[in-house]
Amino acid sequence: MLRIPLLLTAIGLASSLAAQTLTGRVVDANNLPVVGATVYCDLSPTIQANTDALGNFTITSAMGLRNLRYDIAINPRSSIIAPLEYGRVQVSGVTNLGTVQLAPGTQISATLVGPTGLPLVGANLSAFDTAGLKLYTPNDGTDVNGNAQIVVPYGPLTFRAMPPVGTTLVALQEDITVTGPRAYGTITMRQGYALTGSIVRSGATPLPISNCEILATNMLTGESMFLANRRTNTLGAFNFLLPFGLYQLELQPAAGSPYAAREVFGIPVIDYSYSLGLVPLDPGVILSGTVRGPTGLAVAGADIDVITANGHKIYTPNDNTSATGAFSVVVPTGGTYSVQVDPLVASNLYGAKSAPVVVNASTNAGIITVPSGVPATITVIDALGAPVANAQMSVRNATTGAEYVVPGNTAGADGVIHAVVPQGNLDIRVKAPQGSLSAPVALPPSIVAGSLVTTVQLQPKTMCTNTQGLGILTVPNGGDIFLQWTIMNLTPQVQTFTVEASVPLPSGVEVPWVPAIPLDMPGPLGITLTFWIATPPVPATELKFLQKFLVRIRDAATTQLLDESYVYFVPQ
Questions:
Q1: Which CATH fold would you assign to the domain 284-369?
Q2: Rounded Cα distance, 4 and 287, in Å
Q3: Residues near 62 by Cβ (< 8 Å), separated by ≥ 6?
Q4: For 362-387, how does the pLDDT look when each residue is reduced to its tens digit (9 = 90+)?
Q5: Which fold would CATH assign to domain 375-457?
Q6: Over the stretch 178-218, which tens digit does the pLDDT of each residue have?
Q7: Domains 3-101 and 193-281 share a fold
Q8: Distance set, CA 71 to CA 152, 306, 308, 404, 520 (Å)
Q9: Architecture of 105-188 per CATH?
């Protein structure tokens, strides 16, 4: 009774031991043979062969090849040709890969050291394509001096420097576009400290939320952090390393999860582990709809903002419209929301806002139609004729005062705004970024009937103010925020002015800080003060939303607004 199984086993063994051959030809981007490249099966030191003068290779059963599936890796000797790795390749009898073309490549190098400056042995460099797939980068580990180099293809990719396994150092990651050799020099890997917590359902029963993705940004530097364990486990818990900084977390539940995403601001990481405890997410439902142009065609790539009844934008990741103009976002259950649409500039459409809709269950907001506009090219320069980067334009209806949603309303580094505006009687205002020495300007109301091309020159301010904080802090209602306040008198005369501060709510109501304070200041002079300051308490309906602490300076005699600036904070 054992003969049949034994016979089948013998047949299978004979098949696997029969002569197997894997052949192919390796060429470069110009279809020239790649000579001396090593072709590996499962990176085995024995199941491999080198390409000959014509780029051909042959791997046989004498080298250990069997009737199996293999990962095939091709490692050129040249540092200007990118290595390549195939997925599972079935070898059966004589198997020919055909002609394999390798992409042009170039070298990325770095020296990795620890916080004390000592070289790190066992660290490595790696790269990922735009789809997040890891590229094949052989020999990418650091040597005894902390040196490593990899060869990668040209184009956009994500570069990552990983510390040795078992250390509490933090990886470095950045998105780059490879156009030639890149030498990072010495990279000092930072000490990391554990940030822990559990993401749970809000309410009396804090059920764990698993597989929730977490994104972390250092609010002091703008760096997007690499998190090796960026998803919560089955208990909703997370635990990852971050270097010194002040962080913003984006909490994104898995697709199909019945919870709304959330941002958490102002998380300090100093020189010790820190626990956030239970971090609640509100139950959520789907708010969907479709965006179309005036002729009924779908509007793809438009940015969708969901606005609450009291005027605050809520966090809705991945909220651009699809190729069919559709959008679908998860919002907290039980709210009243409007959908604001900001189309791409290339669409030649300007934005629109839907009517409010109560969302107690999955809701479709229907079709939102965005109108056709006209191109507006506005060059913004200062008093000396230099471009004003990041200048912003706002557009209102000159008759009703209603503000339009204007795509592309921010200037690039060249000071040029490429926007789309409606036709009609418009009130257009242009202002420089906060803290600039250039004063805003309001263009005379004008009838716009076609493409608008103009240059706007901003004149100098007489007084300037700027405020900066420690990122965005989350504080108790009425709690303290850090403020660095700068004020400058840009004239040679003494200026008499008042300073006022408030929290302006989206409704138009302002919650004052203290009564206006009169001051005199000689000029030209500038001073900077740093202090912790108590914020004015806001109504309960305004808690947990992003708010502005706004500082204004006015001419004491005329009450004319001279300048203003603000910092964001979140009262809870």
A1: Immunoglobulin-like (2.60.40)
A2: 63
A3: none
A4: 999 999 999 999 999 999 999 999 99
A5: Immunoglobulin-like (2.60.40)
A6: 999 999 999 999 999 999 999 999 988 999 999 999 999 99
A7: yes
A8: 19, 47, 52, 56, 76
A9: Sandwich (2.60)
